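Write out the 3D structure for:
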Amino acid sequence: MTVRKAWIVASVAISSALAFVMLLVVGVYIVAGNLVNGVGGGAKALAKGAVPAAYSTLVQKWGNLCPAISPALLAAQLYQESGFNPRAQSHAAAQGIAQFIPGTWASHGIDGDGDGDRDVWDPKDAIPSAASYDCELASYVKKVGGNLTENMLAAYNAGAYAVIKYGGVPPYTETRNYVKRITTLSESFAAPVGRVDPSEQAAGAIEYAQKKLGTPYLWGGTGTAEQGGRFDCSGLTQAAYETVGIKLPRVANDQYNAGPHPARDELLPGDLVFFSDDLTNSRAIRHVGIYVGGGYMIDAPRTGAVIRFDPIDTPDYFGATRVTEDGAKALPTRV
């Protein structure tokens, strides 16, 4: 069957589904009127569930140690260094969750939990030490022009002398890639901020995606004119929420960390829903859609398919993220 014939066959079903979605959109406005205050997060807050629970409090606390760092940035460094593995050890003898080499640990390791020792293998010492070391490096390069955080990261990678010598991030490929990698990765660990009325946002995002029904999928597509207005899955969700003032990361597994995670029975229209072949690892997420209610989402499924409605209750359903601030506040607080 040709794509054109397939679309004609599907058109009747989609026409019915459009009416269904419009009812859901109205429902978003009604539900929004019942939202209550709850957990929030400032610009430096971690996205809920972005960091393993055992380390989340430590990262949130020590990530605010100085202006050059944030909990999200510290989380990105720990993820990059060890994948949050407190027993990690590299071929270069770097040790623990923050991957300190013995000489650096001897000079910069601190007793973070106040128990009388400095243990590189103990996250309660290693995480505070990583934050302390970052802030110490920042103090060395604070008089250098440019972005203090980027200069600090460059000093971490290439040494403070190189940053001072070049008046900023030195022209080393490895160092520049490191700075870019950590600053970009940190966005996926940060709680979203700057939201407005969730009812308007969720409805607006759904409405945008709804208008794209029938558009052919394009891997890497973000809807540009050069791409014929086509999208891949995360390109569609990113574009839909951008129209209502919410800036999402580009790829699906980073979008998962853009807000708190409602349970299946807490889903509201507008929530992002995610799918993975590894249900234990958010970094393995491979697909995302926008929930519209009734167990369905709008999504850009795969090459050869068009933007359409699909059920979410499949074996590879991973979870969901609520990216509207007031909508997130309606979720129950979990320990």
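The longest helix spans residues 3-32.
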